[in-house]
Amino acid sequence: MKTLIVLRHAKAEHTPGVLDFERGLTHRGQRNAREAGVLIGPLKPDLVLSSSSKRTKQTAELLGLAAPLELDRDIYEAYTDELLVLIRQVGPEVGTLVLVGHNPSVHELVMGLTGDEVETFPPGAFAVVELPGPWSEVDSGTGTLVDTHRP
């Protein structure tokens, strides 16, 4: 059994003239990211895989998890099927993975994996999905939604 925690980056600033990729977190976003880390920590993630945008990187770092953090630019504008490809490449030694990304892809990923209707996935929200078998076999409909959290 594998556990995937899908986290949407926390609340980001909207500053005129700042490129979307370079937008950082608001104070509320920083607080929400720390709170998510407190809730995710007991699940003992083995790896955090995050988009390399400023707001997702900040979210991942503020989680305060002991797990290694890997940044991947491809997550920034990835479609759900591209996120699945990245997840399938995770090593078998990883039992619990945190994926930090962007909407609408992370929201759609959770619904596609589980078949559950998750109505909203606001900034800082996360879902915990249990998956049978290895990462390489993760596909639509193979997951079970265990928990969701919205800040």
TrEMBL record:
Transmembrane feature ranges: none
SMART domains registered for this protein in UniProt: PGAM
Gene3D superfamilies, per database record: Phosphoglycerate mutase-like
InterPro entries membership: His_Pase_superF_clade-1, His_PPase_superfam
Name of this protein: Phosphohistidine phosphatase
